Known about the structure:
By secondary structure, the protein is of the alpha/beta class. Among the domains are: about 110-125 and about 135-270, Uridine Diphospho-n-acetylenolpyruvylglucosamine Reductase, domain 3 (2-Layer Sandwich); about 280-405, Alpha-Beta Plaits; about 590-695, no CATH class; about 705-880, no CATH class; about 890-1010. The protein is about 40% helix and about 15% strand. The strands form 6 sheets. Strands 12, 13, 14, 15, 16, 17, 18 and 19 form an 8-stranded antiparallel β-sheet that branches. The protein is globular.
Amino acid sequence: xxxxxxxxxxxxxxxxxxxxxxxxxxxxxxxxxxxxxxxxxxxxxxxxxxxxxxxxxxxxxxxxxxxxxxxxxxxxxxxxxxxxxxxxxxxxxxxxxxxxxxxxxxxxxxxxxxxxxxxxxxxxxxxxxxxxxxxxxxxxxxxxxxxxxxxxxxxxxxxxxxxxxxxxxxxxxxxxxxxxxxxxxxxxxxxxxxxxxxxxxxxxxxxxxxxxxxxxxxxxxxxxxxxxxxxxxxxxxxxxxxxxxxxxxxxxxxxxxxxxxxxxxxxxxxxxxxxxxxxxxxxxxxxxxxxxxxxxxxxxxxxxxxxxxxxxxxxxxxxxxxxxxxxxxxxxxxxxxxxxxxxxxxxxxxxxxxxxxxxxxxxxxxxxxxxxxxxxxxxxxxxxxxxxxxxxxxxxxxxxxxxxxxxxxxxxxxxxxxxxxxxxxxxxxxxxxxxxxxxxxxxxxxxxxxxxxxxxxxxxxxxxxxxxxxxxxxxxxxxxxxxxxxxxxxxxxxxxxxxxxxxxxxxxxxxxxxxxxxxxxxxxxxxxxxxxxxxxxxxxxxxxxxxxxxxxxxxxxxxxxxxxxxxxxxxxxxxxxxxxxxxxxxxxxxxxxxxxxxxxxxxxxxxxxxxxxxxxxxxxxxxxxxxxxxxxxxxxxxxxxxxxxxxxxxxxxxxxxxxxxxxxxxxxxxxxxxxxxxxxxxxxxxxxxxxxxxxxxxxxxxxxxxxxxxxxxxxxxxxxxxxxxxxxxxxxxxxxxxxxxxxxxxxxxxxxxxxxxxxxxxxxxxxxxxxxxxxxxxxxxxxxxxxxxxxxxxxxxxxxxxxxxxxxxxxxxxxxxxxxxxxxxxxxxxxxxxxxxxxxxxxxxxxxxxxxxxxxxxxxxxxxxxxxxxxxxxxxxxxxxxxxxxxxxxxxxxxxxxxxxxxxxxxxxxxxxxxxxxxxxxxxxxxxxxxxxxxxxxxxxxxxxxxxxxxxxxxxxxxxxxxxxxxxxxxxxxxxxxxxxxxxxxxxxxxxxxxxxxxxxxxxxxxxxxxxx
Length: 1013
């Protein structure tokens, strides 16, 4: 039994502020529930700060309303922090006040001027979203980030973000033409480079804008020598309050040098006009391999002389992690393995331009240098030529941040000194001392970075749940801060200051009061992201300190060790935010894309489960107890009924908020395949549901779905009657209103037995298999049935039988047993374990005869590899292959096919993210018969088992389908190629929402075999 939870309430003054905000006409959402607060308490850092609430403005008017209200005397104690993608590594957007999330609604691209090469966007636009819109015009927004598929433009401006290619393209500030900001009190600030006359007019204003300009001008005029002496001459220069660039080279005054990198501590950036550049038409990436990481660093000095676009470095630790990741299958050809001479470091050197001949000539000269120069031992190099190949390799590199978290055990790389910058010529020596420092503490670490800019990302591995290891954050941070200053560099060269702002006074010295004066002009009462970068003059409040802000590990260590080890996939979420991928044609987390609610994401759900486990433990509940003997269903029914009645009457329980987040999950397992640290939401979702329903009643819908595999074989004996009943209006209405299910699929009336007889299919029994000789076993196949293709899509299973038979194989049909996936999805784990043990035992007995087994539906088939692996009663997993895996060995190369159409594969989410080679296998098979198959980039179809059939999911299911699949399905086959789908759910959803029937790829292969006779 779980406990009823009542977590920390919102403070009274913040409740009053939120009430006044709503009363003032705020149009966006205001969320003070504990789930929203918990999800926004973390970013991609080691810190955790619980906000009082979150507000989601719909437009700049909403932001102005917030700013006006907080300036009123009654609310000058209210603290607010702007937030974008929440991918910061230093707690930049974490607050114990109110989060102002500008990403949910303010995410429109307002204007694209192709001729003038500029765009106007709202703060919540994602960088890759912007570049996708610019690509048809041959333009792009240049500053590159590893988090570009979820980082917002507002966030990039607030951290003055930069990354790969910064030596060529500069930082975000270098591309900002103008900003629209809202200042404290609601005043609008339009900032862009201005001449002396305009500067004089702005300084003459008797409002906050005027005070800001007067303060900035005074500092620029009186502190020029100190600024010149203090600010480092680096590509990265400085993020935030950048006094060195208040004057443009042409003498104009530009306030944006202060706002870019200010981390929201000066105002709310709501809109930006940005410079954009032509996309280089041709690129070549030279991938140079080294026997040591230090060789790669030292070689970079000489490589820079060839003036490439960028030089990226990756060490062996990151490379080895990449080899285990979903991305590796697409780049392995560029990093050949040699067991005798292992690669321990690589440099990725990019050359680009508009003329392939010119770029290739530069590459040839560079390769000649590699072949002739003997100063460093190089193991070899490969070329990735063309933008598509370069993008593939960079995708691997961009995942490096997340991949560093994907290690075994509790000691994991932590971001707290991971974006230092020193002059590039000092980098190798600096890193040698850096490594000596970490080695002195006995720590392991991973390294990667931008060696051309002197920036390296270093993450020492610590178990932050161990107080002794967490205490190392202070001495290591102090030592690295001193080390960077010794080499003329910065502790925070790329990812902003955030909680590390405590080092700002020491770095700026006599200039620090100038920063405080600026803060006072913008934010006199220290209400905007307080504790970051600097405090106002005469303020009694201090900067945050790295060991005085709550660490995630402090809260995690309150969870019983047995529990956090058992819930590892939730506990190990490091907040990298890969699940916030904006791209509708990417499979990662469809529920996030449909709702834009961060609680409806893998990161959000992992955060909620971690907090829920902590609170349950502090309430004295052993959440592992359901695995032991528990009171029976009927014995606990009265108490569960009373608890559920109290819930309906409004009784609060944080468990309900966690349930709502889990209920929105499609259980598609894209997170398990695509998350760099393999956060597996469906796994801990099932466990949570099992626990939740020890206290609260289950809806009838759960029992209907969970029992599907057990009842359907009996119902299939009377398909006409079943279909008639399910089609009856009164039944459909009853199912929707009382059970919560809509448009249930109908049973197939296909004569399956006739198909079995025609192709002489035999039941897979010991008696039939035991007598097969080796040659017969090699030419036999056991087909493993699943409920969906066997009973709802029977003609497809018959087509598979025909295809296998036409290829010269004897087909044996395994008896139908419940796979258990519906039980697992709904959290009936005890029943699932029993079904899995029974089914695995039957299938393992069949596999003992040496005949290969093949399943048809990917979602059901992959259960044997994934969910069954977690069941303790299964001694050996049955090996059930996907159709394409078996066909690779069974389908020979053939003559040119008689069918000449083009095809597009719309792959199943679970299949393409958890078995990334699977789509390429279908392409290979089509190539063998002379057909062209291209895997289409698609998101989720929105069905995912029975999710789309549940009434509560109707809106989100259609939204998900419309975001990606609708356009792909509607594309004319004669122009784009016929669309094919591997998943039963996908075909069902397409028929349901688009009235289109998609074929399975095996049906096209069967068509070819039939044509050949």
